[in-house]
Fold this protein.
Amino acid sequence: MKKQLLLIGGGHAHMVTLANIQNIIAKGFNVTVIQPSERHYYSGMGPGMLGGTYQPEEISFATRRQVEAQGGRFILGKAYRIDPHKRLVYLEGTEEEIPFDVLSCNAGSYVPRKIVKGDYPNVFTPKPIEELQRAKEKILELAKDRKIRVAVIGSGPSAIEIAGNIHQLCHRHDVTMPVIQLFGSRVFMSGRPARIRRLVKTALIKKGIEILEVGHVRLIESDRIFLDNGQEYQADVTFAAVGVKPSQIFARSGLPIGPDGGLQVNEYLQSIRYPFIFGGGDCIYFAKKPLHKVGVYAVRQNPVLYHNLLACLEGRALVKFSPGGSYLLIYNLGDGQGVLGKWSISFAGKLAFTIKDWIDRRFIKTFSLH
């Protein structure tokens, strides 16, 4: 019986493996991919879709078509639990059991909603990326008739890019510019280099975006935002961009996890307890050196993950993953403007956005079917 390679998710860390499904099958193995949607969205271009720079099809990969065109099996569903002893994956809401010999997890991350009290139609998160398309429609619907208030909670990459691209969205559609408030806790962009923080802050303020550094947001309730200092704010639309957490599937499955809940892996991107389970991207906890939740690491993991999955199927030696050195940071702040930083180099303006746009489009083109 042929060995089964099972992939959970078609995200950034699985791109090389997905592109080589035909090669894996030619070597005598079966390949199955589980994903909750037929397309995978590139999160790095999500805020640009919100602002109208990109259309949904321009920032996504046709995962199902790519898998099936190469002879693989695609399952539309959400992986809910892994049984490492029976080597089975269970799907959410069904009784179906998916067997595997080797499993690779690129299950991604989610934005915690613990500060959101209730389920409100005008409160959005940056993930899943499809939420940003719904948010776009809601903002345009409300802003065409009156001046609205939009709140963005957080001051990480998602928050600042969302705030800047809301400005672009309303400017392009010639609707009344909202009052855009970015709740940056007590220190805006805490942990980022001082010059990058200044450049981003200056660019956003020039757009009329108000940056609040007065306290942590304690609670979001319908159209009200409550801070831990007792202050209260109103908002017609709210984005909770408060960081991400790894998929909960690993904790639910009793697999070894890191402090953040991610699948704990060794230098081979392999579970520290189960050598036939691998992972990459936001959903893992790299035991040797915890990594930031940024796409560059998933991209760097691609060739190592592909090699090790095939090596595990064939009984060959694995290779180690090295995170590499510093990486390029570029923020899309809307209106064709960006902020770039690497090493001691940092600058703001159109060139920064142009570089990001070129890199992102090239990435999409490299791994898309034509």
Observations:
- The chain has two domains: 4-110+245-314, 123-243.
